[in-house]
Amino acid sequence: MTEEQKTVLDARGSFCPGPLMELIRGIRQAKVGELIEVWSSDSGSRRDIPFWVQKAGHQMVGVYEEAGYARFLVKKVK
Amino acid sequence: MKKIVVLGGGVGGTIVANLLAKRLRKDEAEITLVDSSGKHVYQPGFIYVAFGRKDPKKLVRDERRLLRKRVRLVLDEAVRIDSQNHKVHLAKGPVLDYDRLVIALGARLVPEELPGYKEAAQHFYSIDGAQKLRKALERFQGGKIIVTVASVPYKCPPAPSEAACQLDYYFTKKGIRDKVEIHYLSPLSRVFPLEPVNPVVEKIFAMHNIKSTIFFNVESIDPAKRVVNSIEGETFSYDMLLMIPPHRGAKVVEDSGLGDRGGWLPTDKNTLRTKAHPDIFGIGDCTDIPVSKSGAAAHFEAKIVADSVAADVRGEQATERYDGKVTCYCDAGYHKGFSMTFDYEHPPVPPPLSLRGWIGKQLINLGYWMLVPQGRV
Questions:
Q1: Does any CB of chain A come closer than 8 Å to the CB of residue B232?
Q2: Which of B129-143, B239-253, B346-360 is the least confident region?
Q3: pTM
Q4: Full residue range of the structural domain in which residue A58 is found
């Protein structure tokens, strides 16, 4: 899958349910091998998202810092 | 004369239709609301039905009586939206043309999507489900109750942790709390979705001996063995499984090719116009915007949509934007509760657990019918 085909979920400003739930939703909807990118302005995501991705057995492709938010790129691997 | 069609007679659709009927002259627009049941249901009351504290009849009213007279109510089901030709096809009646369409159809419960759910699980996300749970709770004499959610997203993110608190209160009053183990499995990194409020809820859980496990996203249920498994690799047994059912977006949205893979309507989180069709608006639970699927969010969104539709009809620039505002009331049991308000820019302030917070929730439940559907607040 190319970078252009990834699913982007803009969860900036989401306090409830929050960016992690958006990511879990995206992963559940995705097919194996697809990329999900979640945008989060919540500082807690820097801890929560990589931790959950590892625990759930998916791949953290990268975390990219932007002005006022971060992009978390995750690959569904199972 | 412009034609405005609103799909769904829940909180969002009803407010939009009423506000438009108030703002637009009769010669400016014809307003039609389509609802399959004609009944307006107050869903936050379901949890009280489950715990035997609310008569379900008090949660349902005729939609017609909540709508302003000039809103045409069509009792039918939208089965296809033709976004190219601006038409809504109904199950029984004639096709409706629209200049602006508002989709406010809510989320759909799809228990069949999780094998074993129907035979194993209880829930309070419908009147029927809440009544069955009430009977199951009356029969329950002791054992382990697992409280969790089948998948995300789901309506009212705090509801399962609130249910765990209500279970504690219910069995304490019944005098068998020492025979009941309550274990809450959260899909997220904490027990309560809102981080600033989480310590308050953790304290309540500790005070009332409610166990919790985080990062538990359900993969499967084994009804024969009475166990539930997570995609993170954990397994827990249960005697009673209280599990929020799987949700999807509205069927007509999916069937019309307007939804994402979960059936949620891709909607701009500020303008509330759907991303693919600016003449179609999305409100509330049926959309993919990153706020709580809750009546409160739909309530605040409805005002923005009404303003924007009215501006479109008059050929003016629509300038109102949804700021992500949500207000949430939680009942922690023992006549204690808390409330919080937040938006895209402002996180909630950790609330005190108080009698006042509990009374606030009860007043909202009572005042809803007089104030909210009409768009008075």
A1: yes
A2: B346-360
A3: 0.95
A4: 3-75
